[in-house]
């Protein structure tokens, strides 16, 4: 939905796309109504895009490239940057690194890792947060989160390792059915050649040690084969690049991995929980 406040919130890429669209449209002597008809949108939708009251969707960018792009590929190039603008501020820099990563190894304690979330689970999680977001903002963030899944299919292949606390498998968002669908999706993802899913048992602390007690973390091997650690809490993020600190956190993560169930046993547990009557 077009909103006046979007004009203030819109990122630099949205403004650039708006300017390019207006310039190409006027160069080809098209009215907003004529362009809209050719790309399958109303004149008001084109106007909203050109004023940043409602920035271009990914679908609109594809159509703009086809109709007025002139073979320059500018709207196509803009797609990834428009997507980046949709991410929360604390995640934007990491989003670029994640998309290009060679390996991602994460430990999560409260919700399913965003890369493996279903659309229903992500919508319930984002839409149910506080402060409450508008429906348009929820849609934008859900779309951005779903777009991250491209990493799982990317060539060259990225290796993704996720360790979930067992409580994540039992914590519903939105409805029990949404959780069940999420668990079924986890089972499918866990069987990908480039994905490993492990579960940290709830009763691990009874063994006397629990390496994951200090919370979530994501270890990243970048395309340049540098190693960093990303952490986020309460909408604040922290990227650790100091080699000695990264080494310390990597050792802790390695211990978490050894304390978690094996991938096969984890898969069996996820399947068992998914099949439970969760009324």
Features of this protein?
279 residues, alpha/beta, six-stranded mixed beta sheet, 6 strands
Q: How is this structure best described in words?
A:
By secondary structure, the protein is of the alpha/beta class. It has helices at 4-9, 12-27, 32-39, 43-50, 58-68, 74-86, 92-100, 119-127, 135-147, 150-153, 166-170, 176-190, 243-259, 263-275, and strands at residues 103-108, 159-165, 195-200, 217-221, 227-233, 236-240. Strands 3-2-1-4-5-6 form a 6-stranded mixed beta sheet, sandwiched between helices. Strand 4 (217-221) and strand 5 form a beta hairpin.
Main sheet: strand order: 3-2-1-4-5-6
Order of helices and strands: HHHHHHHEHHHEHHEEEEHH
- Spatial gap, N to C terminus: 36 Å
Question: What value does the Rg take, in angstroms?
Answer: 21 Å
Strand proportion, as a percent range, falls in 5-15%
Concise account of the structure shown:
By secondary structure, the chain is α/β, with parallel strands linked by helices.
List the helices and strands and how they pair.
Elements: H1 4-9, H2 12-27, H3 32-39, H4 43-50, H5 58-68, H6 74-86, H7 92-100, E1 103-108, H8 119-127, H9 135-147, H10 150-153, E2 159-165, H11 166-170, H12 176-190, E3 195-200, E4 217-221, E5 227-233, E6 236-240, H13 243-259, H14 263-275
Parallel strand pairs: 1-2, 2-3
Antiparallel strand pairs: 1-4, 4-5, 5-6
Helix pairs in contact: 2-6, 3-4, 5-6, 8-9, 12-14
């Amino acid at each position: 939905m077009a909103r006046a406040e979007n004009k203030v919130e819109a990122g630099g890429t949205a403004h650039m796309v708006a300017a390019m669209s207006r310039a190409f449209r006027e160069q080809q002597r098209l009215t907003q109504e004529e362009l809209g008809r050719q790309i399958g949108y109303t004149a008001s939708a084109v106007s909203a895009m050109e004023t940043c009251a409602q920035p271009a969707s990914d679908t609109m960018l594809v159509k703009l490239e086809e109709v007025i792009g002139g073979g320059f590929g500018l709207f196509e190039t803009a797609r990834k940057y428009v997507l980046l603008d949709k991410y929360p501020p604390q995640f934007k820099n990491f989003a670029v690194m994640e998309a290009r990563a060679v390996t991602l190894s994460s430990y999560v304690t409260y919700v399913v890792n965003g890369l493996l979330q279903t659309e229903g689970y992500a919508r319930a999680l984002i839409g149910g947060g506080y402060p409450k977001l508008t429906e348009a903002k929820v849609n934008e963030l859900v779309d951005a989160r779903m777009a991250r899944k491209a990493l799982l299919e990317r060539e060259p292949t990225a290796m993704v390792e996720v360790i979930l606390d067992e409580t994540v498998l039992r914590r519903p968002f939105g409805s029990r059915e949404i959780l069940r669908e999420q668990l079924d999706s986890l089972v499918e993802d866990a069987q990908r050649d480039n994905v490993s899913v492990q579960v940290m048992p709830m009763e691990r602390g009874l063994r006397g040690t629990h390496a994951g007690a200090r919370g979530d973390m994501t270890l990243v091997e970048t395309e340049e084969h540098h190693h960093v650690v990303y952490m986020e809490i309460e909408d604040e993020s922290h990227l650790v690049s100091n080699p000695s600190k990264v080494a310390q956190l990597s050792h802790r993560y390695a211990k978490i991995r050894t304390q978690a169930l094996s991938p096969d046993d984890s898969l069996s547990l996820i399947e068992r929980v998914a099949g439970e009557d969760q009324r």
